[in-house]
């Protein structure tokens, strides 16, 4: 789960990381008022969306007058802001964060991520942070600092000091940098975050260290024990197809194609997407129903897949170990009846209770195609889909 910049900064502050003063605004008028509450003569108006790279998309504006603030706010609010991270549809800006502007002497990149190979948190840092960090990491990968944290002891001050020195920071800035690095790590640990990224962390003209931007995401599997984090969720920033599924405990990822997929196990789901592509089709989603899926859960999976208006055919592929093919079949039959499914549907079942599952489908008398192997199933669904495609093209001609 992702949160907004202002929420991340609020948290960081509680862990001892310095952030600029700021306030939230929902209208241009409110944005001007927020600025008047802050001291100084320069402010930054920032679109709050779940995406980075806002700066290059017009979502971060430095303003020197009320007029500029009001204009920047009017331009941003209500806009689907497209950054190179949002996809072409963009994300809705419904909130702004207005901050006092900071005088920047140096921009640093400071990130904390889970390294799955190391099975540890790794700190990634660079003395040349800011908007060009991607280029720097690809052109001068050796200039990027990496430091793995031992979970038994957590981030120690000597390690934080080492990172701070490798960034080339002035000796006078080291204590503040250490406090920042330890604060970020503590926050990550105590909130079950799986990523904390500060880009840029800046050294100000007056010699302070400050987080000017913050991106934090949390481990969805730990949200049940973090009600205060769940509070921060903003569903308006999510893909509605994924929200529906994740609210029901289904692992679903929306894709761009037309063939809906309902599969058990992430590995088999990936293989199914590959097979659909090899058969000449495009998958509409990844969906793992999980183990021991009840007929209800199968029905819900169909709903999740059908929430995507691009879906024109469905493939169910189950290799039942903990699952039961008869339960899956029951769910499929209920889905066809209750959701009045008319698009092509191919079901491939194997494993536990497969005979019973196949019998239920055969005896249902419903127009459900069945297949023995994954390759056959993928071929069948792509063929059925291209048949209806060419028929509707003929109809239109
Ligand atoms: P992002 O583009 O979504 O990552 O948004 P950021 O919050 O990182 O802002 C983009 C860039 O705007 C930063 O890298 C800074 O260079 C610049 N910026 C943001 N806030 C300030 C500020 O207070 N003062 C100055 N001078 N530049 C800022
Ligand atoms: Mn940034």
From TrEMBL:
Pathway field: One-carbon metabolism; formaldehyde assimilation via serine pathway; Carbohydrate metabolism; tricarboxylic acid cycle; succinate from succinyl-CoA (ligase route): step 1/1
Pfam families (UniProt xref): ATP-grasp_2, Ligase_CoA
Keyword Metal-binding recorded: yes
UniProt domain ATP-grasp: residue ranges: 9-229
Cofactor(s) it depends on: Mg(2+)
UniProt entry tagged with the keyword 4Fe-4S: no
EC code: 6.2.1.5
UniProt-recorded Gene Ontology molecular function terms: ATP binding; magnesium ion binding; malate-CoA ligase activity; succinate-CoA ligase (ADP-forming) activity; succinate-CoA ligase (GDP-forming) activity
Residues noted as binding substrate in the record, renumbered to the chain: 264
Role summary: Succinyl-CoA synthetase functions in the citric acid cycle (TCA), coupling the hydrolysis of succinyl-CoA to the synthesis of either ATP or GTP and thus represents the only step of substrate-level phosphorylation in the TCA. The beta subunit provides nucleotide specificity of the enzyme and binds the substrate succinate, while the binding sites for coenzyme A and phosphate are found in the alpha subunit.
Family: Belongs to the succinate/malate CoA ligase beta subunit family.
Subunit structure: Heterotetramer of two alpha and two beta subunits.
Entry protein name: Succinate--CoA ligase [ADP-forming] subunit beta
Native organism taxonomy: Bacteria, Pseudomonadati, Pseudomonadota, Alphaproteobacteria, Rhodobacterales
Gene for this chain: sucC_2
């Amino acid at each position: 789960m992702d949160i907004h910049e202002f929420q991340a900064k609020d948290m960081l502050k509680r862990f001892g990381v310095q952030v600029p003063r700021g306030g939230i605004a929902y209208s241009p008028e409110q944005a001007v008022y927020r600025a008047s509450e802050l001291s100084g003569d320069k402010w930054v108006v920032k679109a709050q969306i779940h995406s980075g790279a806002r700066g290059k998309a017009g979502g971060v504006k430095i303003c020197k007058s009320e007029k500029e603030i009001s204009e920047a706010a009017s331009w941003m609010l209500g806009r689907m802001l497209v950054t190179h991270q949002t996809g072409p549809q963009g994300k809705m800006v419904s909130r702004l964060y207005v901050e006092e502007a900071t005088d920047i002497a140096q921009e640093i990149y400071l990130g904390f991520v889970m390294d799955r190979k190391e099975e540890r948190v790794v700190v990634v840092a660079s003395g040349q942070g800011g908007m060009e960090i991607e280029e720097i990491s690809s052109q001068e990968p050796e200039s990027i600092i990496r430091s793995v944290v031992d979970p038994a002891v957590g981030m120690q001050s000597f390690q934080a000091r080492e990172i701070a020195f490798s960034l080339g920071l002035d000796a006078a800035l080291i204590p503040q940098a250490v406090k920042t690095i330890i604060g970020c790590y503590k926050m990550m640990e105590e909130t079950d975050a799986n990523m904390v990224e500060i880009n840029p962390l800046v050294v100000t003209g007056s010699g302070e260290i400050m987080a000017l931007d913050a991106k934090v995401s949390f481990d969805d599997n730990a949200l049940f024990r973090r009600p205060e984090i769940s509070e921060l969720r903003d569903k308006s920033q999510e893909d509605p197809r994924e929200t529906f599924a994740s609210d029901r405990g289904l692992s679903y990822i929306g894709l761009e194609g037309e063939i809906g997929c309902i599969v058990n196990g992430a590995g088999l789901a990936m293989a199914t997407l590959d097979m659909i592509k090899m058969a000449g089709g495009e998958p509409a989603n990844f969906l793992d129903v999980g183990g021991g899926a009840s007929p209800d859960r199968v029905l819900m999976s169909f709903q999740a897949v059908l929430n995507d208006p691009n879906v024109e055919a469905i493939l169910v592929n189950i290799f039942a170990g903990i699952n039961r093919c008869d339960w899956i079949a029951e769910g499929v039959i209920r889905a066809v009846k209750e959701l009045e499914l008319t698009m092509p549907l191919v079901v491939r079942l194997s494993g536990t209770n497969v005979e019973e599952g196949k019998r239920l489908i055969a005896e249902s008398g419903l127009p459900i195609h069945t297949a023995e192997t994954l390759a056959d199933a993928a071929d069948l669904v792509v063929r059925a889909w291209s048949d209806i495609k060419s028929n509707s093209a003929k109809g239109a001609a």
